[in-house]
Design goal:
four-stranded antiparallel sheet; globular; mainly beta; five-stranded antiparallel sheet; about 325 residues; single chain; 3 helices; about 50% strand; about 10% helix
């Protein structure tokens, strides 16, 4: 006898054009940061906070430095860049609260930080300890002021990897008698990568039956409970090259029709499908706390840089499908 299974079906809450990417979401808010999957290695830009339920803008601030969301500690956003620097941004107002680039020469590094086009190689965050920020130089930094509370020895170690020649670096510190380990969790990431690669091949075969294929890189597959969310497209040259022999569909010359799909993991059955428009490339950016976000770029937006269309979905369990 078939057993019904609950399925999370995406329900569109709101959509709008943004600059950046979804970096964080909670029960009430959604934060976007300048860095996104379509425009890497920017050093600053627009930060924004929206109401989760309707997309109303709460604040928008431009910061010349600080482009990558690192974490939220109390009401302070901890930001950094791909080069270095630690920045505190108010979650309430979006105002930059402080900048920490070093120790004794922090004032001088801040002067250099004001020079356009110059990237500092100063301090950067590695973890959150007792609601404060621990830096790679072993400094425990006050989340509200950016002041150095204490200094600690940071032990580094390399987690070996079969897939990566150099492995990955982890950090360990002892603070007030307690050991804090900031591991790269490389083994877990490798397992997830291999599982995702195997799943991707199976998904491609299923989509090929409908003249579709996955849109772009790994960010177009998102697992959630017993379901798998997919972003698929029907590329213009599908009739000429099957998916095994062509480049990923993220490499296109024009905008093509995209779909958001929900696949049941247990048997690969597509239980939901909706068209989301003509785009050049697409990506999932957040899937947590009952919220799913999709970022899409047209060819025109791609030429502009980090602009994209954001679609925010609520994941509600409102359907039952039989399983064998």
């Amino acid at each position: 006898m078939d057993t019904p299974e609950q399925v999370s079906i995406p329900s569109l809450l709101w959509s709008k054009e943004i600059r950046g990417t979804v970096a964080y979401a909670d029960a009430n808010s959604l934060i976007t940061s300048p860095e996104n999957k379509f425009a890497y290695h920017c050093v600053g830009g627009w930060w924004s906070r929206y109401r989760r339920d309707n997309g109303e803008l709460i604040w928008r601030r431009h910061h010349r430095r600080g482009s990558v969301f690192f974490g939220l500690v109390s009401d302070v956003i901890i930001a950094t860049t791909y080069h270095a620097g630690i920045y505190g941004i108010s979650f309430i107002s979006g105002r930059k609260l402080w900048t920490r680039l070093g120790d004794s020469f922090d004032w001088f590094l801040k002067l250099l930080d004001c020079v356009p086009g110059l990237d500092n190689e100063g301090d950067r965050p590695v973890g959150i300890v007792n609601e404060h920020v621990l830096s790679i130089e072993g400094r425990l930094i006050d989340r509200n002021t950016g002041r150095i509370l204490s200094r600690h020895h940071l032990e580094t170690y390399v987690e070996e990897s079969e897939a990566m020649a150099r492995g990955a670096v982890g950090y360990r510190a002892t603070i007030d008698g307690q050991i804090f380990d900031f591991s790269p969790r490389l083994k877990q990431q490798e397992t997830e990568f291999l599982n995702c690669q195997k799943m991707r091949d199976e998904i491609q075969k299923i989509l090929a039956q409908e003249n579709l294929e996955l849109s772009g890189d790994w960010n177009c597959i998102q697992e959630y409970n017993s379901m798998v969310f997919l972003i698929a497209c029907n590329p213009p040259d599908f009739d000429h090259l099957v998916y095994q022999t062509r480049l990923q569909s993220g490499v296109k010359t024009i905008d093509v029709r995209h779909f958001l799909m929900v696949m049941r993991r247990i048997d690969g059955v597509i239980v939901h499908r909706e068209e989301i428009g003509f785009y050049y490339q697409a990506s999932f950016s957040w899937c947590n706390q009952g919220l799913l976000t999709v970022e899409l770029q047209t060819k025109k937006q791609w030429n502009w840089g980090n602009r994209c269309d954001l679609r925010v979905y609520e994941l509600s369990v409102d359907r039952l499908f039989p399983t064998n």
